[in-house]
Amino acid sequence: MIVNQKQLASVLGISSRQVRNLQHDFDFFTKQENGRGYDLGKCVQEYIEYKVKAEMPKGTLVNIEKEKAEHERIKKTMSQLKLRKMKKELHEAGDIELFLGEMLYNFKNKLLATPSKIATLIVGEKDVNQIINILTKEMNDLLDELSDFNPDEFASDDFTEKGEDDEEDDD
Fold first, then answer.
1. Type and span of the H or E element at 12
2. How far apart are CA 36 and CA 32, in angstroms?
3. Is residue 78 over pLDDT 60?
4. N or C end of the chain: smaller count of CB under 10 Å?
5. Candidate ranges 41-45, 73-77, 83-87; pick with highest mean pLDDT
6. Cβ-Cβ contacts under 8 Å for 92 (sequence gap 6 or more)
7. Where is this region: Disordered (predicted)?
8. What are phi and psi of 2, to 5 degrees?
9. What rounded mean pLDDT belongs to the chain?
10. What's the pLDDT score for residue 24?
């Protein structure tokens, strides 16, 4: 449908002056080949696209891309952490607390039992070097309790966390 400038302005709800300004500034609303009138359908579509772009906050598309990039970085970091956990290079804090708690509890018990154990070994010993050797051996045995580290003693081999099985790829 071909309309004149006044009719186009009325349909779009703007003034004739605004139609001229949009035509001049943004090269909208091109006239028909014969120079008379405007194609209403095409002009309405151009105006709608113009208004939508004007209403969208600046950088909205950039923000979406930034969010997607951040999401991908997080997924990559999580994958790296899971891999390190599978290789037993990384452990949960709760697992470490449990392991250290048990290790220190065992060490404390052995340490408290040491005086009576050593007393029976050195009770009749008169050679100072032999007493030193017995004490050194017992102290080394105690310290070995602290140096026993086995990553296999940490938590289960269940590497899936809650919700990981349901993880969706948003590519």
1. helix 5-12
2. 6
3. yes
4. C
5. 73-77
6. 85, 154, 155
7. 150-171
8. -95, 130
9. 81
10. 82
Residue 119 Cα distances to 24, 103, 112, 128, angstroms = 104, 25, 13, 14
Q: How far apart are CA 120 and CA 138, in angstroms?
A: 12
Joined tokens for residue 14 = 């703007």
Q: Token digits for 76?
A: 């990559």
- Answer whether 16's CB lies under 8 Å from 6's CB: yes
For residues 23 and 5, is the Cβ–Cβ distance under 8 A?
no
According to DSSP, residue 31 is labeled B
Half-sphere exposure of 47 (CA within 13 A, CB side): 22
Given a contact cutoff of 8 angstroms between Cβ atoms, the answer to whether 79 and 156 are in contact is no
Region class of 103: left (phi > 0), else alpha (psi between -120 and 50), else beta: alpha
39 SS3 class: strand
Pick from 66-70, 101-105, 133-137, 160-164: least confident: 160-164
